[in-house]
Amino acid sequence: MNPSSKIPKTLVIGLGQIGYNNCEYMTRHGLNVDGYDISDEAVQHALNTGVIKNEATSFKGYDYYIICVSTHNPQNMSFPSLEGFFDVIRRLADEGNEGSLVAIESTITKGTSRKANNILNHRLHVAHVPHRFYSEDKDLHGIKQTRVLGGCGTCCATEALYFYLDLLNIPIHVVEDIELAELSKIIENTYRMIQIAFAEELKMFCDIQALDFTQLRKAINSKWNVEILEARSGINGHCLPKDSQMYLRLTEQTIPFSIAYSAKAVDGQYKRHIRYNKEKANLIEQAIEA
């Protein structure tokens, strides 16, 4: 994209939380943004709130394609599925504007970007810029935060760097191999899951030993380089379970056992633990009332 040309046309594909907030940010930065989603409700919401200009009925004629589609299995949201993602890639192969950028923000596994590039026959530039977004603190951890960027080739990375850094003013950490960008997202979420699972394990240990977990946690966290997390209601949602499953599928090919398996098992045990304690407390309360 020539910096001196007209305002670029951008199509955000997938208008869930990540896609919608991308549209909001890009529109605020003066881009001409259209949207596409298989959900009519998602499209209408984006239109009603003014974060997109039009609903795209065709993928033709855009300078930038930002893929934000879900990579969850519709039958089990805790497991990955790339079927919808590749449906988009095949449509871009037919309709995508030659020479434009395809920026993949959806969470994908190692090797997916190059498969997409092969389908597109490198008619379009392909880069992976995995999303980072924390809805509870959009000001500090919203769309504008440091992002990892990798391209299928130097030309792809250059196009993506211009779009995110120059046009959108988003800080970028560039990696040489696009596979590293793919891995960065699934591993950072797997690591987060392991951290949560250890806090859950420690909480169960304290409960069984009649120890105050909160006081123990504060004591341990008084060391400058240690931060044990809170133990809450278990690992809920679907991103951490789904992304860690992508990582586990990769480790199965290289190492016989992964700590991520233990983290999943601990989380399941912890959920049973808090459910048991809640039921026990309810029975005690009922007995007292009787």
What would you say this structure looks like, in words?
By secondary structure, the protein is an alpha/beta fold. It folds into two domains: 9-176, NAD(P)-binding Rossmann-like Domain (Rossmann fold), CATH 3.40.50.720; 184-289, N-(1-d-carboxylethyl)-l-norvaline Dehydrogenase, domain 2 (Orthogonal Bundle), CATH 1.10.1040.10. Helices cover 50% and strands 13% of the residues. It contains ten helices and nine strands. The protein has helices spanning 17-28, 40-48, 83-95, 112-120, 138-141, 154-167, 178-209, 213-220, 239-251, 259-289, and strands at 9-13, 32-36, 64-67, 72-73, 76-80, 101-104, 125-128, 147-151, 172-174. A seven-stranded mixed beta sheet has the order 2-1-3-6-7-8-9, with helices on both faces. Strands 4-5 form a two-stranded antiparallel ribbon. Helix 4 (112-120) links the parallel strand 6 and strand 7 (125-128). Helix 7 (178-209) crosses helix 9 (239-251) and helix 7 packs parallel to helix 10. The chain is elongated. The mean pLDDT is 94.
Write the element-wise H/E pattern from the N-terminal end onward: EHEHEEEHEHEHEHEHHHH
Quote the average pLDDT: 94
Radius of gyration: 22 Å
Spatial arrangement of strands, main beta sheet: 2-1-3-6-7-8-9
List its salient traits.
single chain, 290 residues, alpha/beta, Rossmann fold, N-(1-d-carboxylethyl)-l-norvaline Dehydrogenase, domain 2, 2 domains, 7-stranded mixed β-sheet, two-stranded antiparallel sheet, 10 helices, 9 strands, 50% helix, 13% strand, elongated
